[in-house]
Amino acid sequence: MTSLLVQTTATTETPAPIRRRGGGLWTAVRTNTKAMIGLVIFLLFAAIAIAPQLFTSVRHPNDLAFTPGEQPSGAHWLGTTMLGQDIYAQLIYGTRESLVIALVAGGVATILSVLIGVSAAYLGGFADDSLSLLTNVFLVLPTFPLIIILATYAGKGSLSVILVVLIVTGWSYGANQMRAQALSLRNREFLESARVRGERRLYIIVFELLPTMTSLIVAAFLGAALYSVLTAAGLQFLGLGDPNSLSWGTMLHWAQSQQALQTGMPLWSLAPGLCVALLGASFALLNYAFDEISNPALRPVRRIRAKRAHA
């Protein structure tokens, strides 16, 4: 009896191992090839956007400081424009605006998606009908013509206008997903117990409901960021952005306007186009990878297939 009591006491007093928060997620990301490729590309662009002066010696890439139309060389890796601007320096300094557009527009559009979609599902009744109607109206609108109209009449040339246009046209798809997910969770036991405890609606939504939707929120942000990168580049390419700004889309606009491909300067068009594609690919890869990481149904299938392949 005494030995049994000693064993029980020792068992209860043994400290449980402490898990480091975020360790499991980082391990999952580190072991996922898609996630690592997307993360490396994104971090590279982020470093360039934060400190562009570390990647080029040209401090004012819009200045007409060089011989116009130079071919790529040691002094100008991508050559110069028809006005005498260093193309490589413009590419480096244009990273900041392109990345800001992706993160700000994607982030605000995701916040709107969460607010509208989750509120509609949880509140129900007239609020659900009204917010769902608003979401469906934006879903059926032809997006790109609407973007062109808004960008044209709201004040051509401003970065803030581009951001507003992207946010207004980019939130509805995510809101529809949030509403569907929240509807499936609304009557779960952990939410019912919070209601029985007398918790307020805001508390239940923020601290009980949203944490269970983290993977969907991250996926919505990555999708909105991808949409913002590609759409902003398209708007600026069409001349609906600030022609004097430094961004990849503006570089594409000027390359097209001054016939870079026809005059033997393909890198002027190819370099910013490749950067737009790479940044978009990084968000897409992170989105696919995070879906695999956060969805338990995908991981066993992958392991079973791997075991069968080895067998």
- Please, what is the average pLDDT? 82
Strand content is under 5%
Helix content: over 70%
How can the largest sheet be summarized?
none
CATH superfamily: MetI-like
Q: Overall 3D geometry?
A: elongated
- The rounded distance between the terminal residues' Cα atoms is 51 Å
Please identify the structural class as seen in this structure: mainly alpha
Count of beta strands: 0
Low-confidence stretches: 1-22, 300-304
What number of domains?
1
CATH architectural grouping: Orthogonal Bundle
Compute the CA-based radius of gyration.
Answer: 25 Å
CATH topology name: MetI-like fold
Descriptive overview:
With 311 residues, this protein is mainly α. It has a single domain, classed as MetI-like (MetI-like fold, Orthogonal Bundle), CATH 1.10.3720.10. 71% of the residues lie in helices and 0% in strands. It has helices spanning 2-13, 23-30, 33-50, 87-123, 125-140, 143-153, 159-170, 172-185, 189-196, 201-209, 214-237, 248-257, 267-294, 298-310. Helix 4 packs antiparallel against helix 5, helix 8 runs antiparallel to helix 11 and helix 11 packs parallel to helix 12. The radius of gyration is 25 Å and the shape is elongated. The termini are far apart. The model is unreliable at 1-22 and 300-304 (pLDDT under 50).
